[in-house]
Amino acid sequence: MSHSERRNAGQATCERLIECCPVGCLDSLVETSIMLPEGPLRRCRVCGQLVSQITAEAYTGSMKEFNTPRGTFPDLPSQRRHDARASKLFGVLRRLIRSESGTGARLLDIGCSSEALLRSAVTHGFDAEGVEPAAQAAEFAKSAGLKVFHGYLEEARFSASSFDAVTLMEVIEHLPDPSALLREVWRILKPNGVLVVGTGNGASWTVRLVGARWGYFQVAEHGGHISFFNPGSLAMLAQRCGFDVERSETRRVSLAERKEAGYVSYRLLRVATEVLAMPARLFGKGHDMLVFLRKCSR
Ligand SMILES: [Zn+2]
Hints:
The chain is an alpha/beta fold. The chain has helices at 3-10, 56-62, 76-96, 116-123, 135-143, 153-156, 178-188, 205-210, 231-240, 263-282; strands spanning 29-36, 39-44, 50-51, 106-110, 127-132, 148-150, 163-169, 189-200, 227-228, 243-251, 288-295.
């Protein structure tokens, strides 16, 4: 997010935070049938990006949940899943940056919160550091011995071409103008460096099947979620900011939250979820998206 956008986002205003496609398309946004408390989600007719009608004031308020010492640190039941996913992510990343051990490869985790992914990066041999705007989460990570800059990426003023890899996990869906951030990432990556983006997939079967009930759309549940990519819109944004897509994958389908279904129907929906998981991966229709982007020379 640029300085001017943050200033605008901080203003108490009843205007919509996002008025045009965050990917940079020039066509107008049209309303969808996905009805949220902020109003129906709007869709870009060119790239399919979904955007919230949230006001700047409500958006700023919803981001406050991240400023806690624990930040987005996973709870214990989530820890094993987190570790397995991080291990796979860093394995792919090591291959893409052609560093067998990962030792010495310099990595920056943007929006590192209180350390979860950053610690995994260090464990996997990366020379890793983070950037985190939430003060308490940044302090928590620093007190654990990790190298973290408290503030926004542009404020850190990293040298050009200084990182082998950058990770941007569950961040891009919070940004009214993601291109400003991606251009800064392009600047600080070494030639052929790799950016990893993790976000939800707005064109998933989960969205098709449960629509507005998907928890990821709920700004009350996931503060600051305002912009929902799909594999095509993320590729389009990447290309406009100087990246090529090296690898793109999606996973998981969700049909019901435990709290909204009875025991029997929840078990049945869980079985259906398992059946749909494999084809969802094959067809790029899972709701978790992980994309590896390569910096290309301009
Ligand atoms: Zn668009």
